[in-house]
Structure formats: structure tokens, C-alpha cells
Amino acid sequence: MLDLGISELALIAVVALVVIGPEKLPRVARTVGALLGKAQRYVADVKAEVNRSMDLDELKRMKETVEGAAREVQSGVGSFEKDWMDATAGLEGSEPGETPRVDHSAAYSLGHSVYPPFQRPKKSFRLKQQSVPKWYKARTGQRAFVQSGAARVARHRPKPYPGASSMARPL
């Protein structure tokens, strides 16, 4: 940037003091400082924009390489499918390019299904899968025990003060 030493800065300060005057010098210094700050922010914004554009170019190149690799894989899969069709063309009298069909009628005629019958998963009587832990219920304010409505009212009814009659309430 600028190569200013202490002697050059002192000379500029003396000239500014003589030309501008001591009354206006602080206001001018603030204005110059604000302008220098704006200039630095502008330069930083330009640098950031250049870095973003470079990153964008890098991402575009990376995208192109990934798309090229995907095209190569797709063409490889296409050639594999063609080879598979050619290899399975002679099976069970199917024609080339046709998907071979499997005849399940023999399995149905013997009483067997193609899929295994549904069996319920075995339950473990020691493991409750749907229960919520008591600590979680206590933390979230859920009921941990079943209680009748009358028992719940009796539980939350305010207790009378000791020594007070049951008819009179303190004010």
C-alpha cells in the first residue's frame, strides 16, 4: 500500500493543523476515518464476492465431474442389462429382450404358496414394549398410576389447619 513512516505522518498532521485549523480538525479527522472505514468494507466485500465466484466455479466443475461419472455408471448399467437379457434369453423358451417368467401354478397346485405364511412375532412376557418409564411420566406431568375421580379429588382437597374447626375457615 502506501509506505508512510512516522516522519511523513507527523508532517501531514502539522500541515493539516495549519491549513484546517484546530477547531475543525477533530470533525475532519472523524470524517476521514469514516470514509476510510467505508473503503475498507467495500474492499472486503469485493474480496468476498471474488471468493464466492471462485467457489461457485469450483462447484460447477465438481458437478460436471459427478454428472460425467453418473453417465458412465448409467451406460455401464445399460450394457449390463443388455448382457443379462442376452444371457437369460434361452431360459424357459423366452425370446431375446423379454423378461423371463416364472410359473407358480405348480406351487399353488401342491398347496404351497409362493410366500411363507404370516406368523406373528413372538412376544416376550418380560419385555413391555409400549410402557412409558415412570421417571418420564413424572418429568412430563403424566399420570403414573390409575386413580378414580373421587380419590383424585380427595387427594387434591386442601387439608384443614390443625386446631381449626371443620366449619370455620381462616381468612
Give an overview in words.
- This protein is mostly helical.
- 57% of the residues lie in helices and 0% in strands.
- The protein has helices spanning 6-20, 25-87, 105-109, 134-140, 149-156.
- Belongs to the TatB family.
- One of its GO terms (cellular component) is TAT protein transport complex.
- It comes from Serpentinimonas raichei.
Protein topology:
Layout: H1 6-20, H2 25-87, H3 105-109, H4 134-140, H5 149-156
Characteristics of this structure?
171 residues, mainly alpha
Biggest sheet layout: none
Fraction of residues in helix: 55-70%
Report the sheet-strand fraction: under 5%
Alpha carbon gyration radius: 43 Å
What low-confidence regions span 5 or more consecutive residues with pLDDT below 50? none
Distance N terminus to C terminus? Answer: 83 Å
**Class from helix and strand fractions:** mainly alpha
> What series of H and E elements makes up the topology?
HHHHH
Give the tally of β-strands.
0
Shape: flat
H/I helix tally: 5
Mean pLDDT across all amino acids: 78
Pfam families: TatA_B_E (PF02416)
GO cellular component, one term: TAT protein transport complex
Keywords: Cell inner membrane, Cell membrane, Membrane, Protein transport, Translocation, Transmembrane, Transmembrane helix, Transport
Organism: Serpentinimonas raichei
